[in-house]
Design goal:
The complex is a heterodimer of chains A (311) and B (281).
Chain A (H helix, E strand, L loop, with lengths): L2 E7 L6 H11 L7 E7 L7 E6 L12 H18 L3 E7 L4 E7 L4 H9 L5 E6 L2 E7 L2 H8 L8 E7 L14 E2 L7 E8 L2 H10 L9 H14 L4 H11 L2 E8 L3 E6 L8 E4 L3 E5 L2 H5 L16 E5 L1
Antiparallel strand pairs in A: 1-8, 1-14, 2-7, 2-8, 3-5, 3-6, 4-5, 9-10, 10-11, 11-12, 12-15, 13-14
Helix pairs in contact in A: 2-3, 5-6, 6-7
Chain B lengths: L8 H5 L32 E9 L5 H13 L2 E7 L16 E5 L11 E7 L13 E6 L15 E4 L12 E7 L13 E6 L15 E4 L10 E4 L3 H13 L12 E5 L11 H7 L1
Parallel strand pairs in B: 1-2, 2-3, 3-4, 4-5, 5-6, 6-7, 7-8, 8-9
Antiparallel strand pairs in B: 9-11, 10-11
The chains are: A alpha+beta (311), B alpha/beta (281).
């Protein structure tokens, strides 16, 4: 089933970490397997924030050696960053397997990303000036506490509560997905794509990488591909509604915008609240009401509808 | 078993026949059978006896149980404050009751209603009034998809816009939409009426067996086997009267509504068994 949520503040920064946690916790019944956030903080920085993991949470239960393996993988990441002349300005070990680096670099970032992901077990969850992508097993309260998201300030965010149906319960298959190799682009999705493999094979032939077997990742890669071909976000999303087959509602965020798209049969829910200074969307109104206790006017976007808002 | 060959008043009005041709369709209800109107455990309530529930701090099950407790105490009018878009509120009420929600409901609100008059001052989520059997439900703002799915009787009104698949598999009653409606409205509807005063999305009335759809605005396109019909004088009077009950009007008058009915050209309108069909086709 899955639950998705998004919010964007127009022209101001707010407590998006705690707001998104409230929204996602209200959607827990739609998917308790994992929870993920794409939070957009200060986009004025020239530095990049890189979120990456060196193992799956479940790997920690596989034996005594895994702890040494994890340390070794992180060392390799550090060495490779140094090789590529990337300056690490700050690093935080959020969990034993998840790290947050602030880095400075002005070369070909895709080469850096590919070189780091070449280390076995390492996946870059996000890279960008504003984007920080956090996902792990458990509900929103658990993940928020684990990654200390309560004080996260920013302009917009998307999030996901996952009911695993077509791929494993692991971080790799959790949402959001970063639209590799595009900085600051992320996707969350509720639905099923029926032409997943056809599109995946096509995109792989064009050089795009997939880290999971989750059909939702295809949307992120597809949007990235279209933007690489010159589409702006809205055009890429409109094209996706015709090109992707199945039932879906998805949200995309970039450094300064938030978009939503619904399939042509409107088979997956989405409720929208729009005011002058805030837009909030979710699979169920109860999520929006978790940050608006008073009565508000909401509506359902229609079939095949694509909308994009700027922060 | 009720009489199967009773002439419906709707036929005289010129509405579509509603005489189902499918072999598996049966009518289990007759207006002449009084016992059909009353459940064995129906409660006598007094509409002047009023109570209030603050749903804000309560769980869904507790809210629905509290409604039943109040009805057993003879309360006939219940005002529910702070429903907070919670799901499945006001479901399975098989009794006379005035129920007012001061706010919005989540998914599956007021399903299986048989008798109550319900008013919702806010919005409702997906599948409001699913399988509604009688009474009235009036939503003052917007509604989500599958509004009145499998509805069997009563009046279901949304004064704002509704999502997709309104009246899917509808088997009776009347659905009125004050604004716009999404795609696939009246999909596989079997009986009853849908009145959409605004625009209707694509595939309107797709695969409808019977029933009638009226649209005041533009129709994106018609679904398979849905065709235009002609509004009769009697039908126009009925539409006028029905809309006026809820303070609503057709944008250009009821005679200018577009009427959509089943063309009845689909496979289910022949008398062939599946095995026989193979021989013919």
């Amino acid at each position: 089933m899955c639950g998705i949520a998004g919010l964007i503040h127009r022209g101001k920064s707010a407590d998006i970490g705690s707001q998104m946690t409230s929204m996602l916790q209200a959607l827990k019944h739609r998917g308790p397997d994992s929870t993920g956030y794409a939070l957009y903080g200060d986009k004025g920085s020239k530095d990049y924030v890189m979120r990456f993991k060196v193992a799956e949470q479940e790997d920690l239960a596989t034996g005594f050696d895994i702890h040494d393996i994890i340390i070794d993988r992180k060392k390799k990441v550090d060495e490779r960053l140094k090789d590529m002349k990337v300056s690490i300005k700050n690093e935080e070990a959020v969990t034993e397997y998840a790290h947050r680096y602030t880095i400075s670099f002005d070369g070909d970032l895709k080469r850096v990303i590919d070189y780091i992901e070449d280390v076995e077990g390492v996946e870059i969850l996000s890279m960008g000036h504003a984007l920080e992508l956090i996902k792990d097993l458990g509900d929103a309260t658990v993940v928020s506490e684990q990654y200390k998201l309560g004080g996260f300030k920013g302009t917009h965010a998307i999030g996901h509560t996952r009911m695993a149906t077509e791929s494993d319960v692991d971080i790799r298959s959790a949402h959001p997905y970063w639209a590799y190799p595009f900085n600051d682009v992320s996707v969350v999705h509720n639905g099923q794509l029926t032409n997943y493999w056809t599109n995946r094979r096509d995109l792989e032939r064009r050089g795009h990488r997939f880290m999971s077997d989750c059909d939702s990742e295809l949307i992120a890669v597809y949007i990235a591909h279209r933007m690489d071909e010159g589409d702006d976000l809205e055009s890429a999303m409109k094209r996706s509604v015709d090109h992707l087959d199945g039932v879906f509602t998805y949200l995309v965020a970039t450094a300064d915008s938030l978009g939503m798209a619904k399939d042509v049969m409107a088979a997956k829910p989405m409720v929208l609240y729009e005011s002058d200074d805030l837009i909030a969307l979710a699979s169920e109104e109860v999520a929006i009401r978790s940050i608006f206790p008073h009565e508000i006017d909401t509506f359902d976007p229609y079939e095949g509808e694509v909308r994009v808002w700027q922060s | 078993m009720a009489e199967l060959n009773a002439e419906h008043e709707s036929h005289k009005l010129g509405m579509h026949t509603e005489q189902l041709a499918g072999r598996t369709q049966q009518v289990f209800f007759s207006p002449s059978a009084d016992e059909n109107f009353v459940y064995h455990d129906s409660i006598e309530v007094d509409f002047d006896k009023v109570a209030e529930i603050d749903a804000g701090p309560m769980e869904i099950t507790d809210i629905n149980l509290r409604i039943r407790e109040l009805m057993k105490e003879g309360v006939g009018t219940i005002n529910i404050k702070n429903p907070g878009a919670k799901h499945s509120l006001g479901v399975g009420i098989l009794n006379r009751l005035n129920l007012n929600f001061e706010g919005s409901l989540g998914y599956f609100g007021c399903g299986l209603a048989d008798g109550p008059n319900i008013r919702i001052s806010g919005r409702v989520g997906w599948s409001c009034a699913e399988n509604m059997m009688s009474g009235t439900i009036v939503v003052e703002k917007n509604a989500g998809s599958t509004f009145g799915a499998a509805m069997r009787g009563g009046d279901l009104v949304c004064k704002g816009d509704v999502g997709s698949r309104t009246g899917i598999d509808q088997k009776g009653g009347t659905i009125i939409v004050g604004g716009r409606a999404g795609a696939f409205n009246g999909f596989m509807m079997q009986r009853g009426r849908i009145i959409i005063l605004g625009d209707a999305g694509k595939n309107l009335g797709d695969s409808m067996y019977d029933g009638t759809i009226y649209v005041g605005g533009k129709i994106a396109d018609l679904g398979v086997d849905a065709v235009e019909g002609e509004i009769t004088e009697g039908e126009a009077k009925w539409l006028e009267a029905k809309l006026s009950l809820y303070g609503m009007e057709a944008p250009n008058g009821v005679k200018n509504l577009t009427k959509i009915v089943a063309g009845k050209q689909l496979w289910n309108y022949d008398n062939l068994e599946p095995s026989e069909k193979k021989l013919v086709l």
